[in-house]
């Protein structure tokens, strides 16, 4: 029996593979993983080690990655969270970065060089980025690298927002970006993954993986009745989330942003002009 491995989430190339894949794939060399963390606000995970290569996804600050190769400014990695494989800029990673203690709960927050909002910010962190808090001073959390973040924009790693549809709604109007996962730009499955993560629900990265791996199927007919807030609606290559039984929220290339619209109107347009018919509707919980 031939097993087909998904290259998006399997660390193997014709010349190199992860050591745990011995016996599953053929490669001239196998590499042991080196754990490192993302120290940039966000880092582009690209399909090839080139700045103009396709953006497959983004890794957020504090995210753990397994590094299998570092060469000429690029690291070939697998993200520990969703397993995605690709190339990150090497200068975005550190092996000695401390484990995070908190995550960003605001849509986006600034990192300041000191405890004042009047100082020029050093960086901007998006929702779910993870940081290490060394201490608190007034309204600020002082990070392990000396940066200061507004304390109320952070949450402990084990504190989640149960209304993931409400989290997704906070991204209304954010531009569509293929492979994006931040409040500067994100795609349909990135929006779903980020919103669910804020609620403590791990989700795969791409819409086909989410359709297979999340929730239970909901029966539906042409009327699209009986649906609930939070249901995920899938097409072949697209996903959206219901914020009401008849309202779809999705990052899409039609409006080029995160947009909310009547579900039936979206269903008809998508069916006729892009991804075809709805393939499934999934309910979580």
UniProtKB/TrEMBL annotation:
Domain NlpC/P60: 158-282
Keywords, sorted A to Z: Hydrolase, Protease, Thiol protease
GO biological process terms held by the UniProt record: proteolysis
Xref: SUPFAM superfamilies: Cysteine proteinases
GO molecular function: cysteine-type peptidase activity
Statement: the UniProt record of this protein carries the keyword Protease: yes
Cross-referenced Gene3D superfamilies: endopeptidase domain like (from Nostoc punctiforme) (3.90.1720.10), SH3 Domains (2.30.30.40)
Similarity comment text for this entry: Belongs to the peptidase C40 family.
Designated name of the protein: C40 family peptidase
Species per Swiss-Prot/TrEMBL record: Bosea spartocytisi
């Amino acid at each position: 029996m031939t097993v087909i491995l998904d290259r998006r989430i399997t660390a193997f190339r014709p010349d190199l593979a992860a050591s745990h894949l011995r016996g599953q794939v053929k490669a001239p060399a196998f590499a042991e993983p080196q754990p490192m963390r993302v120290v940039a606000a966000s880092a582009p995970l690209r399909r090839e080690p080139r700045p103009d290569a396709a953006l497959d996804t983004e890794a957020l600050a504090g995210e753990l990655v397994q590094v299998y190769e570092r060469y000429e400014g690029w690291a070939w990695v697998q993200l520990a969270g969703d397993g995605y494989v690709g190339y990150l800029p090497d200068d975005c990673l550190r092996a000695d970065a401390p484990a995070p203690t908190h995550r960003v709960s605001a849509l986006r927050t600034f990192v300041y060089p000191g405890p004042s909002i009047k100082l020029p910010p050093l960086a901007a962190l998006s929702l779910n980025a993870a940081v290490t808090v060394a201490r608190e001073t007034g309204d600020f959390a002082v990070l392990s690298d000396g940066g200061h973040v507004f304390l109320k924009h952070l949450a402990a790693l084990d504190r989640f927002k149960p209304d993931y549809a409400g989290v997704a709604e906070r991204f209304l109007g954010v531009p569509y970006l293929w492979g994006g996962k931040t409040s500067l730009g994100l795609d349909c499955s990135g929006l779903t993954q980020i919103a669910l993560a804020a609620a403590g629900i791990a989700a795969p990265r791409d819409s086909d993986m989410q359709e297979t791996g999340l929730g239970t199927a909901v029966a539906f007919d042409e009327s699209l009745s009986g649906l609930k807030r939070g249901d995920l609606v899938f097409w072949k290559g697209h996903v959206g989330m219901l914020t009401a039984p008849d309202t779809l929220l999705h990052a899409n290339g039609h409006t080029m942003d995160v947009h909310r619209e009547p579900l039936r109107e979206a269903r008809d347009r998508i069916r006729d002009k892009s991804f075809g018919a709805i393939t499934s509707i999934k309910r979580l919980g």
